[in-house]
What we know:
- Chain A is mainly α.
- Chain A is about 65% helix and about 0% strand.
- Chain A folds into two domains: about 20-500, Cytochrome C Oxidase, Chain A, CATH 1.20.210.10; about 570-615, no CATH class.
- Chain A has helices at about 1-5, 20-25, 30-60, 70-105, 110-130, 160-185, 200-230, 245-280, 285-300, 315-325, 330-340, 350-375, 375-380, 385-415, 420-450, 465-495, 535-540, 570-585, 590-610.
Amino acid sequence: xxxxxxxxxxxxxxxxxxxxxxWITTVDHKRIGVLYGVSAILFFLLGGSxxxxxxxxxxxADADLISSGVFSxxxxxxxxxxxxxxxMPLGAAxxxxxxxxxxxxxxxxxxxxNALSYWLFLFxxxxxxxxxxxGGAPDAGWxxxxxxxxxxxxxxxxxxxxxxxxxxxxxxxLAAALNFVVTILNMRAPGMTLMRMPVFxxxxxxxxxxxxxxxPILTVGLVELLLWRFFDMPFFSAEFxxxxxxxxxxxxxxGHPEVYxxxxxxxxxxxxxxxxxxxxxxxxxxxxVFAGVAxxxxxxxxWAHHMFTVGLGPVAIAAFSASTMLIxxxxxxxxxxxxxxxxxxxLDLRTPMLFSLGFVSLFIIGGLSGVMHASPPLDRQQQDxxxxxxxxxxxxxxxxxxxxxxxxxFWFPKLTGRMMGEGLGVIHFWLMFIGMNVTFGPMHLVxxxxxxxxxxxxxxxxxxxxxxxLESVGAIILAIGxxxxxxxxxxxxxxxxxxxxxxxxxxxxxxxxxxxxxxYNFDAIPxxxxxEPFWDQKHPELAHDKPPADAVAPVAEDPASxxxxxxxxxxxxxxxxxxxxxxxxxxxxxxxxIGGAITMMGVYGWIxxxxxxxxxx
Amino acid sequence: MATxxxxxxxxxxxxxxxxxxxxxLLMWTFLASECLFFGxxxxxxxxxxxxxxxxxxPQEVLxxxxxxxxxxVLLTSSLSMxxxxxxxxxxxxxxGRVWILATAVLGATxxxxxxxxxxxxxDEGLKPSTNVFGAxxxxxxxxxxxxxxxxxxxxxxxxxxxxxxxxxxxxSKSLDVELCGLYWHFVDIVWVVIFTVVYLISSLE
Lengths: 617, 205
């Protein structure tokens, strides 16, 4: 492998260059994955800092560290940042890096579209956050219920940054999702049937379909919000026959599938890590896959459980209560399959495994409090209290973030060629695990005691002081954990132990190539005969599905003859034009044509750019 | 599955797992997403069509004969789109160009009808901000019109592009036209739903 890397001379040379320009024009899925990952971690730190400020304000009763107005901006931007700028793009980072490697492909189906997705994400994120310097950030909560978002109650531009920022981010996610659907369905190595795909790739496919079907619904809601605010079209004005509840329906019809968009990548990651460190195949592969599909389908039928208190009527409430309880079944199937994967395995408690076990245990807690919300009478008590905040952080922090952290530790050696420090990793895990429980655990109690979410302060003698103090101490523990994580990354990049191709004795195709992978990934496209092709290749005596006797080993191509797509600057131009268009709408809708013109120019430049390798000759 | 486990894998651009070209699969998936987009807009319209607290109401402004004519024009453009693709696939350069241009002209005619209709409505006192019927009507039909406009630009781009070479759009590149056709037919089908739901049903009540 190493010699192959050295031989990428002539043809494949361009994408392996270094320098800022090479990153701006890159269309290599691995590099775009890195861009997504680094940006998402930076936004994760930003969202974490916002949460930290919130916790410091709430650490004591009657505090005046920050004003109520700033507090509203902080909790709104914390949620938007974590959902749209941290967890989703971290998922996209893993999709980008891993999907082609896991299915035995050399890139995604549309490399330039992939670059466009990233740049739209970055510019959309900047647009959303630029509201901080242009008159104040969105402050109506991340689900931005109508009336609060009207020009009466949200004068100024803050909600327009919300609308337009999310529209740009939505286009980014949609483009990425379409790309991944085509890549996964169409670019699998010979022999890799759908039921031989790695579970992570399966979850990526499911998430991509969820995005394809959920994002247009949000887009319509955002467009209506925009038209309501800019042109007085009375979608949500009850006095003109409009309906504020329409926003809630539209938002949650997107918003609940979104919850699974956030958690399924982590589930996929954990489904790869648990077998690797248990030295067993995943228990019930088929059940795990179909449970994921079932979750995705049912995810579109539970949205109104976010709205039990708005007065939907008993029939609707009963139906959505039942569907919500039902969705616990496929989720439970997954959890039992993970536990049975561990059962009887020879467990190796390295950092990725610790984070995966943390994921499973914390997600169970979050799942159980989630089922509680399925009961309408109980939910009426919990609505808008800290109990909800506790629940959602157990599934999104204890679930998604722990799972994604597991993935970072697991695939860091493949990405960089170096191991992450095990000692610091273990400390990082325990600080995160303890900090997370100290921060969010007491929120269950203080929520049941009646503390509403989103209040900027509370009075002395409310009985909530100790719990809040404890939660703020937890936030400090989490912050220390994240600093150690950052130190670990920098130290490992500089002087981490050299990983080798397969440091974990892992099971899927990405571990069969060098670390870091060559720009073309596979010099010989592998032929797949089983669910765990690399493991079965290493241990043919254990394999159930063996290659036929007449199987011919795939022949490695000469790396010099492998043509990778050319770098392109059109994606960043199109993304810039589209984001400029969105930003200018806030200044003056007519000015937006400038951005539109740049976008059009970019699209035509893109279409007529020779992308294929044939132009080399 | 066109893959044989014993032969060396071929990695050319057309060797896809499903046998479907990447771009075609992308277009189908995108159109699936568009179904939800228009579905949400149509749902909003259905919620609001009779909810306005002040007029004009649908029955007062909708002009079925005019819209039936524009619907006929748009549906005819689907026929010319089919003929354009067929001509290009059999290598008939001139017919290919003629039918592509015809499709674009028919699409533009439909847009002309829509501009006329919008102007009529505004003259009759129905602006997008007048009531919820106006808001949801203009949003739904406006976004459909924007899709038609994108289609017309796409068709005109194909038409102009076909003069870059003497061979027009060669049969080997007929997929370029087929993708445009998929999009175009989808936009037409959406109009069939809009015409039924927004115009025919709303004007009956």
